[in-house]
Protein backbone atom coordinates (compact mmCIF):
# COMPACT_ATOMS: atom_id res chain seq x y z
CA UNK A 1 0.00 0.00 0.00
CA UNK A 2 1.06 3.58 -0.74
CA UNK A 3 0.27 6.78 1.17
CA UNK A 4 -0.08 10.24 -0.35
CA UNK A 5 1.59 12.44 2.25
CA UNK A 6 0.46 15.74 0.69
CA UNK A 7 -2.59 16.62 -1.39
CA UNK A 8 -5.28 19.31 -1.64
CA UNK A 9 -8.55 17.44 -2.01
CA UNK A 10 -10.55 20.48 -0.92
CA UNK A 11 -9.61 22.33 -4.11
CA UNK A 12 -12.34 22.97 -6.72
CA UNK A 13 -10.90 20.40 -9.13
CA UNK A 14 -12.17 17.59 -6.88
CA UNK A 15 -15.50 18.84 -5.61
CA UNK A 16 -17.65 17.19 -8.28
CA UNK A 17 -15.75 13.90 -8.41
CA UNK A 18 -14.78 13.00 -4.86
CA UNK A 19 -16.32 9.49 -4.97
CA UNK A 20 -14.31 8.77 -8.14
CA UNK A 21 -11.10 10.13 -6.61
CA UNK A 22 -11.50 7.95 -3.52
CA UNK A 23 -12.34 4.90 -5.63
CA UNK A 24 -9.23 5.52 -7.74
CA UNK A 25 -7.15 5.64 -4.56
CA UNK A 26 -8.45 2.25 -3.50
CA UNK A 27 -7.85 0.72 -6.93
CA UNK A 28 -4.27 2.02 -6.95
CA UNK A 29 -3.63 0.64 -3.43
CA UNK A 30 -3.27 4.09 -1.89
CA UNK A 31 -4.49 3.51 1.66
CA UNK A 32 -4.31 7.03 3.18
CA UNK A 33 -3.83 10.67 2.23
CA UNK A 34 -3.04 13.87 4.10
CA UNK A 35 -5.14 16.85 3.00
CA UNK A 36 -3.07 19.96 3.58
CA UNK A 37 -4.37 23.38 4.58
CA UNK A 38 -3.24 26.48 2.68
CA UNK A 39 -5.35 29.21 4.28
CA UNK A 40 -7.78 29.74 7.13
CA UNK A 41 -10.96 30.53 5.13
CA UNK A 42 -10.78 27.14 3.41
CA UNK A 43 -9.52 25.18 6.42
CA UNK A 44 -13.03 23.99 7.47
CA UNK A 45 -13.34 22.16 4.14
CA UNK A 46 -10.00 20.42 4.72
CA UNK A 47 -11.04 19.36 8.20
CA UNK A 48 -14.45 18.11 7.03
CA UNK A 49 -12.85 15.84 4.46
CA UNK A 50 -10.71 14.26 7.18
CA UNK A 51 -13.65 13.92 9.54
CA UNK A 52 -15.87 12.35 6.88
CA UNK A 53 -13.33 9.77 5.69
CA UNK A 54 -11.38 7.53 8.10
CA UNK A 55 -8.42 7.18 5.75
CA UNK A 56 -7.94 10.93 5.23
CA UNK A 57 -6.06 13.26 7.59
CA UNK A 58 -5.75 17.05 7.79
CA UNK A 59 -3.28 19.78 8.67
CA UNK A 60 -3.87 23.36 9.75
CA UNK A 61 -1.81 26.29 8.51
CA UNK A 62 -1.31 29.07 5.97
CA UNK A 63 0.86 28.67 2.87
CA UNK A 64 3.73 31.17 2.49
CA UNK A 65 2.51 32.14 -0.97
CA UNK A 66 -0.87 33.42 0.30
CA UNK A 67 -0.20 37.06 1.09
CA UNK A 68 -3.67 38.59 1.20
CA UNK A 69 -5.27 36.21 3.68
CA UNK A 70 -5.99 36.15 7.45
CA UNK A 71 -2.88 35.55 9.52
CA UNK A 72 -2.87 32.61 11.95
CA UNK A 73 -1.82 33.13 15.54
CA UNK A 74 0.17 30.67 17.59
CA UNK A 75 -2.83 30.32 19.91
CA UNK A 76 -5.26 29.52 17.08
CA UNK A 77 -3.00 26.90 15.52
CA UNK A 78 -2.30 25.21 18.85
CA UNK A 79 -5.92 25.15 20.02
CA UNK A 80 -7.23 23.90 16.68
CA UNK A 81 -4.59 21.18 16.38
CA UNK A 82 -5.19 19.97 19.93
CA UNK A 83 -8.99 19.94 19.65
CA UNK A 84 -9.21 17.96 16.40
CA UNK A 85 -7.85 14.41 16.43
CA UNK A 86 -7.69 14.19 12.64
CA UNK A 87 -5.28 17.15 12.45
CA UNK A 88 -1.86 15.55 12.39
CA UNK A 89 0.40 18.42 11.30
CA UNK A 90 0.98 22.17 11.25
CA UNK A 91 1.32 23.71 7.79
CA UNK A 92 1.99 23.93 5.07
CA UNK A 93 4.35 26.66 6.04
CA UNK A 94 7.78 27.89 5.08
CA UNK A 95 9.26 30.43 2.69
CA UNK A 96 8.73 31.11 -1.01
CA UNK A 97 10.86 33.80 -2.61
CA UNK A 98 10.22 32.55 -6.16
CA UNK A 99 7.63 35.25 -6.88
CA UNK A 100 9.45 37.98 -4.96
CA UNK A 101 10.38 39.60 -8.27
CA UNK A 102 11.66 43.13 -7.84
CA UNK A 103 10.63 43.39 -4.22
CA UNK A 104 13.31 43.72 -1.58
CA UNK A 105 14.38 41.02 0.83
CA UNK A 106 13.06 43.15 3.68
CA UNK A 107 9.61 43.23 2.07
CA UNK A 108 9.31 39.47 2.61
CA UNK A 109 9.59 39.74 6.39
CA UNK A 110 5.87 38.89 6.67
CA UNK A 111 6.67 35.41 5.33
CA UNK A 112 9.46 34.88 7.83
CA UNK A 113 7.23 36.05 10.67
CA UNK A 114 4.42 33.70 9.60
CA UNK A 115 6.89 30.84 9.34
CA UNK A 116 8.10 31.41 12.90
CA UNK A 117 4.49 31.47 14.10
CA UNK A 118 3.89 28.01 12.66
CA UNK A 119 7.09 26.56 14.13
CA UNK A 120 6.26 27.88 17.59
CA UNK A 121 2.74 26.47 17.33
CA UNK A 122 4.04 23.07 16.22
CA UNK A 123 6.34 22.86 19.20
CA UNK A 124 3.54 23.76 21.62
CA UNK A 125 0.96 21.51 19.96
CA UNK A 126 3.50 18.69 19.56
CA UNK A 127 2.52 18.30 15.91
CA UNK A 128 5.10 17.93 13.11
CA UNK A 129 5.61 20.61 10.48
CA UNK A 130 4.90 20.50 6.75
CA UNK A 131 7.57 22.69 5.13
CA UNK A 132 7.33 24.42 1.76
CA UNK A 133 10.53 26.05 0.51
CA UNK A 134 11.20 27.57 -2.89
CA UNK A 135 14.14 29.79 -3.78
CA UNK A 136 14.63 30.25 -0.04
CA UNK A 137 16.39 27.17 1.28
CA UNK A 138 19.10 29.00 3.26
CA UNK A 139 16.61 31.11 5.20
CA UNK A 140 14.30 28.11 5.62
CA UNK A 141 17.01 26.00 7.23
CA UNK A 142 18.29 28.89 9.35
CA UNK A 143 14.86 29.74 10.74
CA UNK A 144 14.13 26.09 11.48
CA UNK A 145 17.36 25.97 13.48
CA UNK A 146 16.78 29.29 15.24
CA UNK A 147 13.27 28.27 16.34
CA UNK A 148 14.32 24.83 17.54
CA UNK A 149 12.29 22.90 14.97
CA UNK A 150 14.48 19.88 15.56
CA UNK A 151 12.35 19.48 18.68
CA UNK A 152 9.35 18.42 16.58
CA UNK A 153 10.54 17.62 13.03
CA UNK A 154 8.20 17.01 10.14
CA UNK A 155 8.52 16.83 6.36
CA UNK A 156 10.17 18.86 3.61
CA UNK A 157 7.32 18.61 1.16
CA UNK A 158 7.64 18.45 -2.65
CA UNK A 159 11.41 18.49 -2.27
CA UNK A 160 13.38 20.05 -5.15
CA UNK A 161 16.47 21.34 -3.32
CA UNK A 162 20.03 20.02 -3.20
CA UNK A 163 21.33 17.00 -1.34
CA UNK A 164 23.08 19.39 1.07
CA UNK A 165 19.73 20.95 2.00
CA UNK A 166 18.18 17.50 2.38
CA UNK A 167 20.95 16.44 4.74
CA UNK A 168 20.58 19.58 6.86
CA UNK A 169 16.85 18.95 7.12
CA UNK A 170 17.32 15.27 7.96
CA UNK A 171 19.82 16.24 10.65
CA UNK A 172 16.94 18.15 12.30
CA UNK A 173 14.65 15.14 12.16
CA UNK A 174 12.78 15.98 8.95
CA UNK A 175 11.66 13.53 6.30
CA UNK A 176 12.16 14.31 2.61
CA UNK A 177 9.07 13.97 0.42
CA UNK A 178 9.25 13.52 -3.34
CA UNK A 179 6.41 14.42 -5.71
CA UNK A 180 5.75 13.77 -9.39
CA UNK A 181 8.53 16.22 -10.23
CA UNK A 182 11.07 13.45 -9.62
CA UNK A 183 9.65 11.55 -12.62
CA UNK A 184 10.19 14.43 -15.06
CA UNK A 185 12.94 14.02 -17.67
CA UNK A 186 14.28 17.47 -16.74
CA UNK A 187 14.73 16.51 -13.08
CA UNK A 188 18.10 14.76 -13.35
CA UNK A 189 19.65 16.62 -10.39
CA UNK A 190 16.64 15.84 -8.20
CA UNK A 191 16.80 12.20 -9.22
CA UNK A 192 20.44 12.06 -8.12
CA UNK A 193 19.44 13.59 -4.78
CA UNK A 194 16.63 11.06 -4.43
CA UNK A 195 19.09 8.22 -4.89
CA UNK A 196 21.06 9.50 -1.89
CA UNK A 197 18.13 10.02 0.50
CA UNK A 198 17.78 6.83 2.57
CA UNK A 199 14.46 4.99 2.42
CA UNK A 200 14.00 5.39 6.15
CA UNK A 201 13.85 9.20 5.73
CA UNK A 202 11.63 9.34 2.64
CA UNK A 203 7.95 10.09 1.96
CA UNK A 204 6.07 10.28 -1.34
CA UNK A 205 3.28 12.64 -2.35
CA UNK A 206 1.25 14.06 -5.22
CA UNK A 207 0.68 17.70 -4.19
CA UNK A 208 -2.47 17.16 -6.24
CA UNK A 209 -4.11 18.70 -8.17
CA UNK A 210 -0.64 19.83 -9.28
CA UNK A 211 2.48 18.12 -10.63
CA UNK A 212 1.04 14.93 -12.12
CA UNK A 213 3.80 12.34 -12.58
CA UNK A 214 4.79 10.70 -15.82
CA UNK A 215 2.78 9.27 -17.63
CA UNK A 216 0.02 11.71 -16.58
CA UNK A 217 2.00 14.95 -16.79
CA UNK A 218 -0.22 17.88 -17.76
CA UNK A 219 -3.37 16.33 -16.33
CA UNK A 220 -5.10 17.08 -13.02
CA UNK A 221 -3.14 15.10 -10.46
CA UNK A 222 -4.85 12.97 -7.80
CA UNK A 223 -3.80 10.80 -4.84
CA UNK A 224 -4.06 7.53 -6.79
CA UNK A 225 -1.09 8.59 -8.86
CA UNK A 226 1.27 8.65 -5.90
CA UNK A 227 1.73 5.00 -6.86
CA UNK A 228 3.50 6.19 -10.03
CA UNK A 229 5.86 8.32 -7.94
CA UNK A 230 6.59 5.27 -5.80
CA UNK A 231 7.17 3.00 -8.79
CA UNK A 232 9.57 5.47 -10.37
CA UNK A 233 11.60 5.93 -7.19
CA UNK A 234 11.77 2.17 -6.59
CA UNK A 235 13.28 1.72 -10.06
CA UNK A 236 15.57 4.71 -9.57
CA UNK A 237 16.91 3.34 -6.28
CA UNK A 238 16.94 -0.29 -7.40
CA UNK A 239 14.66 -1.58 -4.65
CA UNK A 240 11.50 -3.72 -4.89
CA UNK A 241 8.34 -1.66 -5.17
CA UNK A 242 6.93 -3.50 -2.14
CA UNK A 243 9.85 -2.29 -0.03
CA UNK A 244 9.46 1.30 -1.24
CA UNK A 245 5.73 1.22 -0.50
CA UNK A 246 6.07 -0.30 2.97
CA UNK A 247 8.98 1.95 3.97
CA UNK A 248 7.34 5.20 2.92
CA UNK A 249 4.05 4.14 4.53
CA UNK A 250 5.78 3.26 7.81
CA UNK A 251 7.61 6.59 7.66
CA UNK A 252 4.32 8.44 7.24
CA UNK A 253 2.86 6.97 10.42
CA UNK A 254 6.06 7.59 12.32
CA UNK A 255 6.48 11.16 11.08
CA UNK A 256 2.91 12.13 11.93
CA UNK A 257 2.74 10.20 15.21
CA UNK A 258 -0.23 8.01 14.28
CA UNK A 259 1.27 4.60 14.93
CA UNK A 260 -1.92 3.06 16.34
CA UNK A 261 -3.84 3.95 13.18
CA UNK A 262 -1.34 2.31 10.90
CA UNK A 263 -3.50 -0.69 10.25
Topology, element by element:
Elements lengths: L1 E6 L4 H4 L2 H10 L2 E6 L7 H10 L3 E5 L13 H10 L3 E10 L12 H17 L3 E6 L2 H10 L7 E3 L6 H9 L2 E5 L9 H9 L5 E3 L21 H12 L3 H15 L8
Parallel strand pairs: 1-2, 2-3, 3-4, 4-5, 5-6, 6-7, 7-8
Number of DSSP-assigned strands: 8
Number of DSSP helices?
10
Tally the structural domains: 1
Name the CATH class. Answer: Alpha Beta
Report the mean per-residue pLDDT as an integer: 96
Give the CATH H-level superfamily: Metal-dependent hydrolases
Largest sheet: 8 strands, parallel
Helix content: 40-55%
Structural class label: alpha/beta
How far is the first residue's CA from the last residue's CA? 11 Å
What name is given to the CATH topology? Answer: TIM Barrel
Model description:
The structure is a single chain. The chain has 263 residues and is of the alpha/beta class. The model has no long low-confidence stretch (mean pLDDT 96). α4 (74-83) runs parallel beside α5 (109-125) and α9 crosses α10 (241-255). It has an eight-stranded parallel β-sheet. It has a single domain (2-261), classed as Metal-dependent hydrolases (TIM Barrel), CATH 3.20.20.140. It is globular, with a radius of gyration of 17 Å. The chain is built from ten helices and eight strands. It has helices spanning 12-15, 18-27, 43-52, 74-83, 109-125, 137-146, 163-171, 188-196, 226-237, 241-255; strands at 2-7, 30-35, 56-60, 87-96, 129-134, 154-156, 174-178, 202-204.
Amino acid sequence: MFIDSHCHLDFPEFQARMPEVLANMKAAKVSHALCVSVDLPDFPNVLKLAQDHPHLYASVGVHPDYEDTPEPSVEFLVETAKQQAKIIAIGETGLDYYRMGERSYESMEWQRKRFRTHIRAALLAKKPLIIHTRSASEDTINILKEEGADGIGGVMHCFTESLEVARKAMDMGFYISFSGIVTFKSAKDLQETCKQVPLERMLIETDSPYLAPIPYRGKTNEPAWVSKVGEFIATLKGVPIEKLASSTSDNFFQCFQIYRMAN
